[in-house]
Amino acid sequence: xxxLFSVSTFAQKTxxxxxxxxxVMKISGKTTNKAGHLTFDGNDHxxxxxxxxxxxxxxxxxNMVKLKMDxxxxxxxxxKVKMVDLQRATLLNCxxxxxxxxASDNNAELSIKEEKGVKTISINAKGKxxxxxxxxxxxxxxxxxxxxxxxxxxxGITNTYEIK
Length: 164
Prior knowledge:
eleven-stranded antiparallel sheet
């Protein structure tokens, strides 16, 4: 994994790693497992290209969010869709280490726990979750590298990413 560290934050500045993705839909009980490769430039470009299933992707490029997942394809201008912009900003802020901003945007409280070389960042809603926001976010770091990200949406979908 190629890594550059930010001087101003605890988190990595860039990522170039394989990942697994588990999606759990609470209402239906359905679980899906996927895998792919993640790159993040430290700014506003995140690319998640899936190898399982082949051809799926989720890309943030500035204000544009492009995805092809679960049989759906979309190219969205986040500056025109508030819900998409909130999800885009939350993901980017979490990857950049701007946890306070991610918490504030999601009307949530931030807590940080460090134990035996593992740092866990928890962002939990303290009331009504904004439309498109996250009920909770958990980020787990080992040696400054993000190894796990759990995003729980208010609608009952939990996405867990394990970064290799």
